[in-house]
Amino acid sequence: MGFKERLKEKRLEAGLTQVELAEKVSVTPRTIQNYEMGTRRPGNMKIVGDMAAALGTTADYLLTSADRYTVEAQEKGRSQAARDIQALVGEVTGLFAGGQLSEDAMEGAMRALNDAYWRAKEKNKKYASHKSRREE
Length: 136
Fold this sequence. Notes:
434 Repressor (Amino-terminal Domain)
């Protein structure tokens, strides 16, 4: 069960409509609808925390580790980074889907790849910076 299913489950358990939850979290009802349809994800952990508090649960319950990496990527590097991390996590998950990898080992692999992604982005930013200086 992913973020969209957990969000809807907890909202219904709390007896809230999408409009009521949106008001509590200071987002639009359409945003909550998009979260529950899976067409959009929260842009930062504050929104996730606010939703969790309004629903009487925790951010850790609402977000799988893959969801957490995506939200953190959105905070850190905007939409492109979030899409990159989401694709990377999807590939890693698919790679080990039929194997005997424990949940902890899977989390470790995803964390290592996430860290490698951000190190590469930082290194590429430094490289692009030098390249731009040479062209000037």
